[in-house]
């Protein structure tokens, strides 16, 4: 072969290589294989309870506990979320089941204000109430008031529902679930067991209780936290001050309990804070029939149960009737006449003309504190979720594919909580980065494990911006 | 004069620190006593036992954690309207049940497949099956009703 031939061969070979490169596309970046089946871990009782909570209708009208306590919405609902639901969602059963068309719900108040009808004083009367989240119940419902008349029984006195009397019988979460089935799951207002619904079995009640107790915080915060935001830190100081915010009298460590030295008792107690005396209640503004909610007891004593505040900022609107939409407004409530003239307000007034008298900057800083501790709660939830996904484990029976999707809600909540108060732009940026990673993990299941692990590290960084 | 005249002087360490309760100076004792009194005012009016609305729909014997634990189920032996008591024949003997005013009474009509209703002590008759949730911590021959369910037979 001469030099000419060699040149031709070389040219031809080059041409073939070039052509082959043109005709055959570059092989796609190889996706890693899909993750192996996730590991089943966790307490079987909690897993069973979660399944019952979100899937079991108890042969009723189609509702489950999760109809109102949405797992993808902080175990509660509000008007904005309700607006996203399809018309045939069981929440709206009063709109398509003729047997429930009257006196079961008020669709207008449900859709406009996220209110649910409750017959807590008997079948012939009702009140409209919001849906409380069910986070942190392990540390939020145990109660031991000094006055035993406050309890149904001498052995235990848990507080459930907005007025602390939401459960029949033993008052505990098991009894609460039974009462909720009768109140909210029935096919007709006759509420006949075996016809309109079935009662949960004891085993089901135990499992649902275990699930509910597993949700959210398992212990109270230990305030003060070493917060990095000067505004939130100031808010924490005011919150804990016995002369300024006085919030910790009832919300010790920003939870649902009175402080350990309280002369009123221990744990989760009821107070009349005057919310019912606020002007312009939602039902009144809407021109809908309603009754003044008399709180605990029949007839009621006007007291309502103390909710935890750690989870407050992303679970508004606030109070038992959604009468205040924003966390800043909720803090401002304690500056107003309704609270200051109430029995609780008078109780903490001392020698001052008003029980609580904060200026705008102080109210905003208390709200900032609440926003920040809510974001920290979101981080804890995200750490649980992303950690489970990174380990390729089910979380209380939920597949990692669903867990990673659901984590987007907590990310958005954290962004909302912080950005809504112009707090921690650095952490907000981290949450946005986390969101991008999680979205990618949702889109590409094969990368889910690695992306969740990366997201977890970014979340940890966000936390480091918020607290030392 | 406000019931709590020196709330600001309540020792923050008592309220907030979670520490063992120290000896309380006299001036602060007054404050805490006043706060306690007001606390009683807040809770004392609840002399009935709060919301039981959904309890009325639970058939006799089906209240988890209550039926046959802090309740008795049996047939009414006799009713003493004057003394506001009735007796139940129970395996352990005769139980006397005191019925305070305003004790909720419900008619359990689940056996006839109908809605339970609010009743009254006038509905209590001999030979009727009843469930009585009692207020006492332990069962004894003399009990006080917290609520009463009366079975309406088929």
Question: What's the pLDDT, averaged over the residues of chain A?
Answer: 92
The secondary structure category of chain A is: mainly alpha
**Biggest β-sheet strands, sense, barrel of chain B:** 5 strands, mixed, barrel
Q: How much β-strand is present in the residues of chain A?
A: under 5%
- The first-level CATH class of the largest domain in chain B is given as Mainly Beta
Name given to the CATH architecture of the largest domain in chain B? Beta Barrel
- The number of distinct β-strands of chain B equals 7
The H-and-E topology of chain B, N to C, reads as: HHEEEEEEE
Distance between the termini of chain B: 62 Å
Task: Please compute the radius of gyration of chain B using only Cα atoms.
Answer: 22 Å
- Fold-level CATH name of the largest domain in chain B: OB fold (Dihydrolipoamide Acetyltransferase, E2P)
Question: What do these coordinates show?
Answer:
The complex is a heterodimer of chains A (468) and B (154). Chain A has 468 residues and is mostly helical. Chain A folds into two domains: 44-214, Cytochrome Bc1 Complex, Chain D, domain 2; 221-245 and 312-468, no CATH class. Chain A is 42% helix and 3% strand. Chain A is built from 17 helices and six strands. In chain A, the strands form three sheets. Chain A has a two-stranded antiparallel sheet with strand order 1-2. Chain A has a two-stranded antiparallel ribbon with strand order 3-4. A two-stranded antiparallel ribbon of chain A has the order 5-6. In chain A, helix 15 packs antiparallel against helix 16. Chain B is of the alpha+beta class. Chain B has two domains: 7-43, no CATH class; 53-151, OB fold (Dihydrolipoamide Acetyltransferase, E2P), CATH 2.40.50.320. Helices cover 15% and strands 29% of the residues of chain B. Chain B is built from two helices and seven strands. Chain B has a five-stranded mixed barrel. In chain B, a hairpin with a 4-residue loop joins strand 1 (71-80) and strand 2. The longest helix of chain B has 18 residues, at 26-43. At the A-B interface, helix 7, strand 5 and helix 13 of A face helix 1 and helix 2 of B.
């Amino acid at each position: 072969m001469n030099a000419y031939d060699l040149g031709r061969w070389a040219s031809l070979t080059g041409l073939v290589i070039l052509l082959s490169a043109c005709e055959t596309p570059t092989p796609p970046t190889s996706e890693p294989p899909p993750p192996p089946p996730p590991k089943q871990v966790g307490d079987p009782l909690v897993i069973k309870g979660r399944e019952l909570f979100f899937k079991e209708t108890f042969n009723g009208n189609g509702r489950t506990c999760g109809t109102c306590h949405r797992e993808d919405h902080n175990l509660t609902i509000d008007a904005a979320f309700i607006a996203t639901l399809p018309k045939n969602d069981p929440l709206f059963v009063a709109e398509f089941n003729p047997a429930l068309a009257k006196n079961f719900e008020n669709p207008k108040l449900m859709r406009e204000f996220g209110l649910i009808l409750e017959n807590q004083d008997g079948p012939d009367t009702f009140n409209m109430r919001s849906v409380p989240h069910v986070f942190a119940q392990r540390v939020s419902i145990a109660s031991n008031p000094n006055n035993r008349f406050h309890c149904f029984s001498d052995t235990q006195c848990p507080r459930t529902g907005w007025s602390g009397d939401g459960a029949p019988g033993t008052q505990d979460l098991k009894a609460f679930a039974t009462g909720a089935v009768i109140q909210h799951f029935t096919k007709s207002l006759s509420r006949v067991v075996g016809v309109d619904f079935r009662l949960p079995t004891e085993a089901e009640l135990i499992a649902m209780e275990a699930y509910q107790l597993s949700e959210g915080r398992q212990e109270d915060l230990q305030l003060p936290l070493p917060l990095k935001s000067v505004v939130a830190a100031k808010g924490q100081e005011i919150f804990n001050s016995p002369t300024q915010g006085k919030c910790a009298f009832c919300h010790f460590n920003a939870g649902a309990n009175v402080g350990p030295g309280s002369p009123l008792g221990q744990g989760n107690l009821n107070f009349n804070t005057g919310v019912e005396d606020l002007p312009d209640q939602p039902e009144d503004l809407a021109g809908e029939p309603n009754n003044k909610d008399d709180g605990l007891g029949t007839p009621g004593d006007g007291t309502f149960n103390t909710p935890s505040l750690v989870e407050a900022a992303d679970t508004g609107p606030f109070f038992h009737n959604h009468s205040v939409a924003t966390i800043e407004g909720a803090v401002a409530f304690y500056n107003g006449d309704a609270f200051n003239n109430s029995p609780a307000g008078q109780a903490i007034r001392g020698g001052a003309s008003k029980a609580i008298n904060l200026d705008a900057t102080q109210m905003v800083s208390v709200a900032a504190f609440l926003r920040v501790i809510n974001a920290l709660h979101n981080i804890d939830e995200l750490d649980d979720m992303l950690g489970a996904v990174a380990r390729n484990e089910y979380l209380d029976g939920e597949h990692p594919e669903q867990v990673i999707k659901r984590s987007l809600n907590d990310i958005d909540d954290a962004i909302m909580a912080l950005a809504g108060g112009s707090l921690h732009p650095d952490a907000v940026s981290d949450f946005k980065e986390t969101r991008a990673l999680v979205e990618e993990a949702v889109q590409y299941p094969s990368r889910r494990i690695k992306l969740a692990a990366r997201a977890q590290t970014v979340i940890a960084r966000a936390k480091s911006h918020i607290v030392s | 004069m406000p019931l709590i005249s020196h709330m600001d002087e309540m020792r923050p360490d008592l309220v907030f620190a979670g520490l063992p309760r120290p000896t309380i100076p006299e001036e602060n004792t007054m404050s805490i006593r006043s706060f306690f009194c007001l606390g009683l005012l807040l809770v004392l009016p609840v002399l009935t036992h709060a919301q039981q609305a959904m309890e009325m729909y639970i058939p006799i014997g089906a209240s988890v954690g209550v039926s046959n634990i802090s309740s008795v189920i049996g047939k009414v032996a006799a009713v003493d309207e004057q003394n506001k008591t009735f007796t139940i024949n129970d395996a352990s003997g005769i139980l006397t049940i005191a019925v305070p005013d305003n004790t909720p009474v419900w008619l359990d009509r689940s056996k006839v497949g109908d809605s339970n209703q609010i009743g009254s002590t006038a509905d209590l008759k001999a030979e009727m099956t009843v469930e009585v949730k009692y207020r006492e911590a332990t069962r004894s021959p003399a009990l006080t009703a917290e609520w009463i369910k009366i079975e309406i037979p088929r």
